[in-house]
């Protein structure tokens, strides 16, 4: 491979650089306090709601569950799809300069040697000499203080032995024999495929630098201590994008992508006071990164990472070129120059984003009860885009007169949006149920609908206001009122 010196390249021009943007974001230093302070919402409330409404629950529950693995039920799967769709819409559909990749989870084992994961993708593991429980050392020991109570010790705290490095990659074998030559890893990140496939994708998509390759998919990490519900799990989904730029333009693109990603969360309704950008300290930087920030969210347990945005330089392309012996440089035809692009990477987690959106949307309010008093109402004030169901169709009762019209309305709306038909229980209870899973509109079919005016009552989730709209105008009404942009 030709070794290239970025400083030998001709000057940057406007086309190498990002467009001017002006995003007002909150930046904090690397050592900013991580305490979440007093939080309106507890993790227990979120976990309980998710379980009760079947959004997210333990994997293999009937067998006692599996730590670090969670299942997304019907509404949870829809929420997760909506997070991914919103990301893809922003990253791909609304831009012309990012293309999609859906690479295999199993990759050639040399990929993980080249990337540095075989050698360095480790966490320090420590074990209590008395109860044998295992912990990530940096979480179990803070300063000199050991923080876990030992169930078997006469002293109250665990007695940790020296830490050893534990590789987080899951290993498996391809083919019928478990010999060393058949060993492969489950990918711990989606990013590497974008580097390995860089030349092929660039050539066939005919993209010119600057451009990006984006991928959404499962990743696996054998986390020592999975915790905080879906925040840290062993099997999760990532939304990652590698943006290839001309060396020298990388810092401007890094700034640009920090702004874009901040803006994405805000546009999807996340409260600004719960979001911040934190710089990585020099000793926190990954081996490949020149500069990294985390987008952090104020979870009930602490300010924690939602997404990392790294300037990965030309590290990965150079490493894969070296290990594979293939040329992964880029030829700029207009300038007749060849170079290895620098890479800026926004890397987000689908599960973490879904959790943050759930926490952010969770509200408990007082609402008038059917008996004229006040009631407690739990509400998920999700952005319409993220709401698993856009409208619920509720006949006032299961009366034979109402059901056919209500079903007709459901079928009419189903062609455009994800809707739910529900005729079980009192109307008040059905409203509450829809509020709890964030459905923006309830459409009620009553006797007046079938006997008089062929109009329905539309109830707004947030304001609880009601409006009468004729069935003929219903699609138009929802089109106007659903914020799906
Ligand atoms: P952490 O420091 O929390 O372990 P990381 O810095 O190793 O995360 P990255 O390698 O930057 O994470 O991965 C990008 C994103 O993938 C993270 O910001 C997070 O949203 C998600 N992610 C990483 N590990 C996990 C996990 N074990 N469970 C859920 N999501 C994860």
Secondary structure elements and their pairing?
Layout: E1 27-28, H1 43-52, E2 56-58, E3 70-72, H2 74-93, E4 98-100, H3 109-115, H4 117-120, E5 122-127, E6 134-136, H5 137-140, E7 141-142, E8 145-146, E9 164-167, E10 171-173, E11 183-185, H6 191-196, H7 198-205, E12 211-220, E13 235-245, H8 250-267, E14 275-279, E15 291-298, E16 303-313, H9 315-324, E17 330-332, E18 337-339, E19 342-349, H10 350-361, E20 362-368, E21 374-380, E22 391-395, H11 403-414, E23 419-421, H12 427-436, E24 441-445, H13 447-453, E25 455-460, E26 466-470, H14 474-481
Parallel strand pairs: 1-14, 4-12, 22-23, 22-24
Antiparallel strand pairs: 2-3, 5-6, 5-9, 7-8, 10-11, 12-13, 13-19, 14-15, 15-16, 16-19, 17-18, 20-21, 24-25, 25-26
The chain binds adenosine-5'-triphosphate (ATP).
Question: Would you write up a description of this structure?
Answer:
- With 485 residues, this protein is of the alpha+beta class.
- 28% of the residues lie in helices and 27% in strands.
- It has 14 helices and 26 strands.
- An 8-stranded mixed beta sheet has the order 1-14-15-16-19-13-12-4, sandwiched between helices. It has a 5-stranded mixed beta sheet with strand order 23-22-24-25-26, sandwiched between helices. Strands 6-5-9 form a 3-stranded antiparallel beta sheet.
- α2 (74-93) packs across α10 (350-361) and α3 packs across α9.
- 36% of the residues are buried.
- The model has no long low-confidence stretch (mean pLDDT 94).
- The structure holds adenosine-5'-triphosphate (ATP).
- Residues 189, 221, 223, 232-233, 236, 238, 305-308, 347-349, 351-352 line the site of adenosine-5'-triphosphate (ATP).
């Amino acid at each position: 491979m030709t070794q290239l010196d970025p400083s030998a390249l001709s000057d940057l021009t406007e086309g190498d650089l990002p467009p001017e943007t002006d995003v007002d974001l909150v930046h904090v230093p690397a050592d900013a306090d991580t305490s979440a302070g007093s939080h309106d919402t507890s993790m227990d409330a979120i976990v309980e709601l998710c379980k009760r409404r079947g959004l997210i629950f333990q994997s293999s529950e009937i067998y006692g569950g599996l730590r670090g693995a969670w299942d997304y039920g019907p509404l949870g799967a829809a929420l997760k799809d909506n997070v991914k769709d919103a990301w893809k819409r922003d990253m791909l559909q609304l831009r012309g300069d990012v293309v999609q990749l859906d690479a295999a989870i199993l990759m050639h084992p040399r990929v993980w040697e080249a990337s540095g994961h075989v050698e360095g993708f480790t966490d320090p593991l420590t074990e209590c000499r008395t109860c044998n429980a295992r912990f990530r050392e940096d979480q179990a020991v803070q300063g000199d203080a050991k923080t876990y109570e030992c169930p078997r010790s006469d002293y109250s705290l665990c007695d940790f032995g020296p830490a050893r490095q534990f590789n987080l990659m899951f290993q498996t074998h391809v083919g019928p024999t478990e010999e060393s030559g058949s060993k492969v890893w489950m990918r711990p990140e989606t990013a590497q495929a974008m580097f390995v496939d860089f030349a092929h994708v660039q050539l066939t998509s005919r993209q010119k630098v600057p451009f990006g390759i984006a991928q959404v998919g499962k990743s696996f990490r054998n986390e020592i201590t999975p915790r905080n519900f879906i925040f840290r799990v062993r099997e999760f989904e990532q939304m990652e994008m590698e943006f290839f730029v001309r060396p020298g333009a990388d810092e401007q693109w890094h700034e640009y992508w920090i702004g874009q990603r901040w803006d994405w969360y805000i546009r999807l309704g996340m409260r600004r006071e719960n979001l911040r950008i934190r710089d990585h300290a020099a000793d926190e930087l990954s081996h490949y990164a020149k500069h990294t920030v985390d987008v952090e969210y104020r979870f009930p347990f602490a300010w924690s990472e939602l997404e990392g945005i790294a300037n990965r330089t030309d590290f990965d392309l150079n490493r894969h070129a070296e290990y594979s012996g293939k040329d992964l440089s880029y030829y700029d035809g207009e300038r007749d120059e060849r170079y290895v692009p620098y890479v800026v990477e926004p890397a987000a987690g689908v599960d973490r984003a879904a959790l943050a959106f759930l926490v952010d949307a969770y509200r408990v309010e007082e609402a008038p009860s059917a008996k004229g008093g006040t009631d407690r109402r739990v509400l998920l004030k999700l952005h319409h885009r993220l709401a698993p169901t856009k409208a619920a169709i509720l006949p006032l009762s299961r009366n034979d007169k109402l059901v056919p019209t209500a079903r007709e309305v459901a079928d009419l709306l189903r062609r455009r949006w994800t809707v739910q038909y529900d005729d079980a229980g009192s109307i008040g209870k059905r409203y509450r149920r829809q509020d709890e899973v964030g459905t923006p509109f309830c459409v009620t079919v009553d006797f007046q609908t079938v006997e008089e005016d062929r109009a329905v009552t539309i109830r707004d989730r947030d304001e609880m206001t009601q409006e009468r709209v004729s069935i003929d105008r219903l699609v138009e009404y929802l089109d106007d009122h659903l914020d799906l942009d």
